[in-house]
Input
Amino acid sequence: MEMTRTNKQRLIFGPIVLLIGVVLLIFWKNAPSIIISGLMAGGLASIINGIYSHSKYGVQAESDERTRKISASAATYSWFITLTFVGVLAYLNEFGLLEITVKKVLSNIILVMIGTLILFYAYFARKGDVK
Amino acid sequence: MKDKGRYRLLLGIFFLLAGAASEIIWEGTHSPITSASIAVGIILIVGTAIRHYKYGQEEEEKDERTLKLAAFALANAWLVTLVFLLFLFLVDYYKLIEMTAFDAIMFTLVATNIAAAIFQWHFKRRGDVE
Output
């Protein structure tokens, strides 16, 4: 079957990493759960990524000048929104309007970053260009 | 000086004076708001002055190429920020550093701005993103 090199690597390393996670889960008593869930999540992501990319693009190029420009613009807008969001969080925290833990701060910021990136990417991809 | 620069300068002076006046007139008003107002005023004035001496009456260089450079620089900064956040997450998870929520916010702000500045400078010097 025709398949790009990257997808082949994804589909080979994904199951290996996933299997290592499962084997550790079975044979290592009281293993730190963060290692096992990390390995399993990484393996699964790699497999899904490979299958998705292969079924959508096949042997064609995944990215060209246009999609790269779209992703760069989406990341730029997302960066600005994240900066504003972090600034607002800093002020809310400074004036005691919001009592939050470090974990919640970090996960909120990551959520906003990735959420706005996906939104802007979908928006620009639908529009077809960044202008 | 261009109209845009003049407005910016006036706005800067206004913010600076408003911040300083409220610090002086009302005692005990020293707060992040007045400091922020003074900082914004100074940044507007200095920024306008630098822009004026650098470009004068000419139009600022802004075309397809510089926009692309800026976009790619910020995209790279975005990625660096994400990795930095995950790193902070691990640091907090394993309790390597005791930090408050405010510390985490400030670390993020500083890291994301420094990354953006470094990438802007790097791409501008290289002249292309490839």
In short: Helices of chain A lie at 5-27, 33-57, 65-94, 102-127.
